[in-house]
What we know:
Number of domains: 2
Number of strands: 18
Low-confidence stretches: none
Shape: elongated
Amino acid sequence: xxxxxxxxxxxxxxxxxxxxxxxxxxxxxxxxxxxxxxxxxxxxxxxxxxxxxxxxxxxxxxxxxxxxxxxxxxxxxxxxxxxxxxxxxxxxxxxxxxxxxxxxxxxxxxxxxxxxxxxxxxxxxxxxxxxxxxxxxxxxxxxxxxxxxxxxxxxxxxxxxxxxxxxxxxxxxxxxxxxxxxxxxxxxxxxxxxxxxxxxxxxxxxxxxxxxxxxxxxxxxxxxxxxxxxxxxxxxxxxxxxxxxxxxxxxxxxxxxxxxxxxxxxxxxxxxxxxxxxxxxxxxxxxxxxxxxxxxxxxxxxxxxxxxxxxxxxxxxxxxxxxxxxxxxxxxxxxxxxxxxxxxxxxxxxxxxxxxxxxxxxxxxxxxxxxxxxxxxxxxxxxxxxx
Length: 387
């Protein structure tokens, strides 16, 4: 595949999704089964209507059907499935009374494919973790081969990923509620390296799951430090927290959109301080302003001019905190900072839900809370049975 995307000044290779590979393997297997034609390359139609050609790595004719394999290519995306074989075993099938009504193509998950164990995912509990778009791609690819050969029966397609169970243990799948293997994913059929959209879609799914499982109050944090803080300092179940990376504004929007009653945000001051000036994507490439925020809040907290200006020269927020602590200004400063954070968060959430924030430092100790934080922590503790 010779397709690229630019991320800043970098030219990065695109890849193909597991769903595209599964559809291609299924088409090749169906073609061999129905016509005896062994394919070295196979065409697959992507959801947007474009076609892509993939190389068929292997074709095995077995007693009851045909197995074909496509090797996953993720381009420059750090995808755990890169280089793995995506396999499809296709066989003639006589529908039973409980088969989906009118289905010509039955799709199941085999070795290395996870099964759904929690609500809120693309597929119902108990189903193979093959999402709806890949399912449609597989079905259409196989139906196309059936039409070519005038085959009027039914085919069963079993997708497998050798080594998928072991690889899945290194992913978020067990936490999401997908057990025993990997997911077959993809909405466009193409993988864009380091896709922000993919990150947002992942935590959107997690927030929706938490809402369906646990009710109206959600907990989110930018990263692993926040998970540790939530567990050890707040006494909440870290398994229930969702990592939203730098996309705090979108996490708020998603929580509002799914009907959450409240959202508790916990994060390191280095990211969370940016919220005080309305920066809702906290990645440094989007915006920084930490020194300016510290300078402003220090002045509002009663700092002298020299101390406030020194904030502008601090390389890290921890350095600035040390200066404020030495000047006995840290707590007045944090009061001002948390007020401004609360104001910005409330504007983003509007009247749709309650919102609160807790900020910590490198030692994982709490530095500040917004006015509703303690109330929300208690509500969440009660719900989790922590009290």
